[in-house]
Amino acid sequence: MGVTNLLARERDVRGQVVLITGAARGLGAGLARRLAYRGAKVALVGLEPAELARVAAECGPDAAVFEADVTDWAALERATAGVVERFGGIDVVVANAGIAAAGFIRSVDPAAFERTLEVDLLGVWRTVRVTLPHVIDRRGYVLVVSSLAAITHAPAMAAYAAAKAGAEAFANCLRAEIRHLGVRVGVAHPSWIATDMVGGADEHPVFGPLRTAMPGPIGRTHPVPLALDALERGVLRRDRAVHVPGWVGLLKLVRAFLPPVVEIGGRVRGNLIAKADRAALADIAARGAAASSRPVGAGGAAAMSEPRG
After folding, report:
1. What does the pLDDT read at residue 166?
2. Which has more pLDDT, 1 or 128?
3. Is the pLDDT confidence value at 4 over 50?
């Protein structure tokens, strides 16, 4: 497909209302800035009100902040009502909010594990369910941000991989269900991107070295602009899939073969995994399970500090 055809597929977002969760930092904040620059009205939803306000100020007068935990039905309903009252409707929803807790299944803090599932999977479902009537009204677009982790299931990433795989499956079901209503649905699969979350993961004394030891391109960290370029294109073209980098899409074609490959790699690098397992137990003994397994980065800390029923 030529460049002219690709550009022809892009839609003008001037005046459109884009709701982005997890908009205080990282990819959510960066995408909000880019779409605001293109003339979109951006609704920034998430925790960390000071960070959200800073991003909104950078996005200009057609940006508004709506503080909400994506796992809280009432908070999401208030935020959605606020967006519709302020802007008149919703054209695009980017379900981007996510956290990651590192830990082996046998020793990870249960609260951190389950909070990751709540935010990364149930948060997507709740965001979409609450906003969907408004997106249907405008025959709009929903983009669910999944991950490379939905395709390659690595040790110490069970909560994150399970949640992101679930988010991908959710998006695929949603696409088939609402296509006849004129709504497009996309799912994004970023690899490791140099965000606050990935930086926090790399600082973990046990799991940081384990992640950076991943072989080849799977362990490589990619710059934020690369991911924002792809996400921005995805929104403009209402793509069904966004891969960052492009080779992630190739992995999806052979995903059935990846679990055995990971298992073989684990046996080959068994000493590394065994050392990390012992180190995790030692870290938990020294700092406690909650501190060792705490979701990484400032966003993860904010999600864990949010009161829950």
Report:
1. 97
2. 128
3. no
- Residue 160 designated active-site: yes
Q: What six digits make up the tokens of 309? A: 């029923």
pTM, 2 dp: 0.89
- CA distances to 126, 170, 213 from 75, rounded to whole Å, are 11, 22, 40
pLDDT in tens, 67-123: 999 999 999 999 999 999 999 999 999 999 999 988 899 999 999 999 999 999 999
What's the total number of domains in the chain?
A: 1
Percent of the chain residues topping a pLDDT of 90: 64
CATH of the domain at 189: 3.40.50.720
Catalytic residue among 160, 170, 192, 207: 160
Question: Residue 125 belongs to what domain range?
Answer: 3-305
